[in-house]
């Protein structure tokens, strides 16, 4: 009798255990389903918010584009005024000199690369690689020969441009790290520019003495892009002219 009672007791416990397991399983499944539905609802809500933001941004862009088109039309109308022709010419010249716009014209390309010659025992290997002073010599020679616009590896050279060594490379305009080969582009009279570099005892002769590779190419048209950096002045101010406030 005791053994039978124990068997019934164990049997009841088994079913209770199964029932508890089923209940827990249903609870977990229900919670998972609810959490998933909430996540989907949040995702849909977020999607709708982003969609509305994109639509607003497109509308704002359209309004701004229409305003730009309107101002451009007004500017073109003003530029056609005969009284402004001279002023516009002066403005264009100033923008070219400042490097503020793309320019094109006849000119040359000067391609410079480190020497491929073997360094002889006892010689300084630094003589066989290009340095900032070598680049500056070429730039100065081209300026003296009448170059109206200059660039190094596509980076516009302006009056405030600095060229200095940083290890095996050079830094131009404080942000552009350039490595050989260096391609210096100059706009001006191609014959004059080339002759200034190739004169006897000139900059090319001094570079080739150490095996530096130099190649000069004349082109009927070269394009030099505008300067991309900042042009603001923090300390320099125009000097007031006597009689002006």
Reading the helices and strands in chain order gives HHEHEEEEEEHHE
Helix content: 40-55%
Radius of gyration: 37 Å
How much of the sequence is in beta strands? 15-25%
Commentary on this structure:
This protein has helices at about 1-80, 85-100, 130-145, 190-200, 205-210, and strands at about 105-115, 150, 155, 165, 170, 175-180, 180-185, 215-225. The strands form two sheets. A five-stranded antiparallel sheet has the order 3-2-7-1-8. Strands 4-5-6 form a three-stranded antiparallel sheet, covered by helices on one side. Mean pLDDT is about 80; it is low at about 1-10. The chain contains five helices and eight strands, in the order ααβαββββββααβ. It is of the alpha+beta class. The chain folds into two domains: about 1-80; about 100-225, Alpha-Beta Plaits (2-Layer Sandwich), CATH 3.30.70. A hairpin with a 2-residue loop joins strand 4 and strand 5.
């Amino acid at each position: 009798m005791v053994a039978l009672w124990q068997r019934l007791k164990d049997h009841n416990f088994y079913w209770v255990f199964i029932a508890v397991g089923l209940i827990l399983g249903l609870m977990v499944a229900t919670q998972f389903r609810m959490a998933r539905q909430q996540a989907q609802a949040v995702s849909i809500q977020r999607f709708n918010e982003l969609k509305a933001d994109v639509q607003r941004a497109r509308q704002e862009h359209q309004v701004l584009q229409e305003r730009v088109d309107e101002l451009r039309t007004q500017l073109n109308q003003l530029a056609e005024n005969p009284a402004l022709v001279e002023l516009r010419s002066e403005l264009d010249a100033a923008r070219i000199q400042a490097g503020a716009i793309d320019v094109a014209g006849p000119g040359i390309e000067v391609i410079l690369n480190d020497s491929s010659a073997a360094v002889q025992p006892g010689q300084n290997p630094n003589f066989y690689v290009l340095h900032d002073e070598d680049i500056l010599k070429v730039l100065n020679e081209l300026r003296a020969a009448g170059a109206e616009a200059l660039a190094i590896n596509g980076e516009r050279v302006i009056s405030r441009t600095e060229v200095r060594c940083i290890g095996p490379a050079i830094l131009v305009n404080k942000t552009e790290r350039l490595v050989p080969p260096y391609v210096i582009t100059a706009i001006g009279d191609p014959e004059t520019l080339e002759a200034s570099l190739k004169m006897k005892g000139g900059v090319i002769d001094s570079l080739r003495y150490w095996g530096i590779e130099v190649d000069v190419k004349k082109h009927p048209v070269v394009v030099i892009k505008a300067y991309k950096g900042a042009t603001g002045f923090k300390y320099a101010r125009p000097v007031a002219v006597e009689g002006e406030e």
